[in-house]
Amino acid sequence: MWKIVVGFIVFAALALYVISKGGDSLDMSGEKHGTESHAPAEAAASATAGAASAAPVAASAASQ
Where is this region: Disordered (predicted)? Predict the structure, then answer.
């Protein structure tokens, strides 16, 4: 039983060490609800919309 407790303490200490060494790339503050979190989704949506609007033009040109 004492081995389990010691193993848990060692594992927890190792996990805390790795998290603390993560630097600025590791964000533990939770969910983001600002505008900066939605910018990539808008760019992907506009790229998809651009590709979708180009497809009917190519199809209509091919049928004529």
Answer: 28-47
Is the CB of residue 19 less than 8 Å from the CB of residue 26?
yes
Torsion, Cα 25 30 36 41, to 10 degrees, reads 100
Q: What is the dihedral of CA 36, 41, 47, 53, to 10 degrees?
A: -120
Whether the CA torsion 24, 25, 30, 32 is positive or negative: it is positive
Q: What is the DSSP letter of 22?
A: T
pLDDT digits (tens, 9 = 90+) for 13-30: 999 898 888 766 667 677
